[in-house]
Specification:
This protein has 418 residues and is of the alpha/beta class. The protein is 41% helix and 14% strand. It has an eight-stranded mixed sheet with strand order 3-2-1-4-7-8-9-10, sandwiched between helices. Strands 13-12-11-14-15-16 form a six-stranded parallel sheet, covered by helices on one side. A two-stranded antiparallel sheet has the order 5-6. Helix 4 runs parallel beside helix 5 and helix 9 packs antiparallel against helix 10. The longest helix is centred in the middle third of the chain and has 32 residues.
Length: 418
């Protein structure tokens, strides 16, 4: 088929590449012209898609990145994988709207449109369908197929990839479901059909809300356990030996990426707007996880105080600017907030991350460095925020005068663990 994937980020690029590998002719539509140019040159910005996997598809013409809206003409199936950020606590669906309007101009009878972007239940049928109908003059269902299939991409996970992660699929009617299911069955090992788009949309939010709430639980426990003089990490290790009824979650400096800081709030917003009630679990989890960077800074200040030092004028090295180990994904990373707070307190803050090269969300006052032995040694404190495998942990232990380890990677006389 002629396939269009709108958005070539952490979700769209792996999907486009996989679709091209199984035999579709794929256009990767992306409004960022710089990203299009990089992809066209055979350079991937996603760790999960190495250049060696991308280049043969470019050479054969099976995959073609483009910033030209007319490049989508003649599509049989289009997938929307654009961002859905929050703006002042309200879901911003402007990217979905723009993608829908762009596709509508080229929508043909019998074609299929699938939304993958995370959003609140009802978006596919209540927002996207009318946009497509208005712009095309066709009717969703009788004239074209429409469905929702939530993305389950986990950047940097070598075990669970697009191909072997079960894919939730849905459609606005039986024919749409068959079209959506048929496409994804050619890409992944297993599809999981659900009865409507709203159930599929809720499935995604349920998955991320589950993680968000449980991470908030262990984060708050970590704060209390420290004040009580209890090793939370040992307690988690012990609890994880139970073969049933417990799932391990670990504390950290906060949550990042699109899924946890943003997605549960879509559900909370929808509940408030539709039912007039608050989703208390989400609101509580938001409060706990959002304030973890402040707790990290507080712990560092306590460590400085115990050494008769001040944060102002100190030199602090932050290790890891991505939100997740061994990825370049710095979206909503708690590291940015930790850096901002320390800079506001007058510290000289330096950040090292072998994966994050160009992150516009990081405070401009942050000095980027490499985590060399010399850089570690001249720092008054090292804060391990993201435990990339590339970091030399022996060098950190040997040369750092003090380490605040937010990931339980180190142990030693100069180390405090979150």
């Amino acid at each position: 088929m002629q396939v269009v994937v709108t958005g070539q980020g952490y979700v769209g690029l792996p999907l486009a590449v996989r679709a091209a590998e199984v035999g579709h002719q794929v256009v990767g539509y992306e409004i960022d012209r710089r990203r299009v140019g990089t992809l066209a040159g055979g350079e991937s910005h996603i760790e999960d898609i190495p250049d060696a996997r991308l280049r043969p598809l470019l050479a054969s013409g099976a995959y073609r990145p483009s910033a030209d809206p007319a490049a989508v003409v003649g599509f049989d199936l289009a997938v929307i994988t654009v961002p859905t950020p929050l703006r002042d606590g309200v879901p911003d669906l402007s990217h979905i709207e723009a993608a829908g309007e762009g596709l509508a101009a080229y929508l043909r009878p019998g074609a299929t449109v699938v939304l993958e972007s995370t959003t609140y239940p009802g978006t596919t049928e209540e927002l996207l369908a009318p946009l497509l109908e208005k712009g095309s003059g066709l009717l969703a269902g009788p004239d074209f197929h429409l469905g929702y299939s939530p993305e389950r991409i986990d950047p940097g996970n070598p075990a669970w990839r697009l191909e072997n992660t079960p894919k939730i699929v849905s459609g606005i009617d039986g024919e749409s479901l068959r079209a959506v299911d048929g496409f994804y069955r050619g890409l992944v090992e297993r599809t999981v059909p659900v009865s409507s788009c709203k159930e599929a949309e809720l499935t995604k939010l349920l998955e991320n809300t589950f993680r968000h709430v449980n991470i908030a639980l262990v984060n708050e426990l970590a704060v209390f356990a420290h004040d009580l003089g209890i090793d939370i990490w040992e307690a988690i290790d012990a609890a994880a030996t139970k073969p049933f009824g417990f799932m391990r979650f670990s504390p950290g400096p906060g949550v990042g990426g699109h899924c946890l800081p943003i997605d549960p709030s879509f559900l909370s917003w929808r509940v408030e707007r539709a039912l007039g009630r608050s989703f208390r679990f989400v609101e509580l989890a938001n409060d706990v996880n959002t304030h973890m960077p402040e707790y990290v800074v507080r712990r560092l200040m306590e460590a400085f105080n115990s050494r008769r030092m001040a944060v102002r004028g100190s030199r602090v090295l932050l290790l890891g600017l991505a939100y997740k180990a061994d990825t370049s994904d710095a979206r909503e990373s708690p590291s940015a907030r930790v850096a901002e707070l320390l800079l506001d307190f007058g510290a000289e803050v330096r950040g090292a991350d072998p994966h994050v090269v160009d992150d516009i969300s990081t405070d401009a006052r942050l000095i980027r460095v490499e985590a060399t032995a010399d850089e570690i040694a001249v720092s008054d404190a090292v804060v391990l925020l993201t435990d990339h495998s590339e970091f030399d942990y022996e060098a950190i232990l040997e040369h750092a005068p003090y380490v605040l380890d937010c990931r339980n990677r180190l142990s030693g006389a100069n180390v405090d663990v979150l």
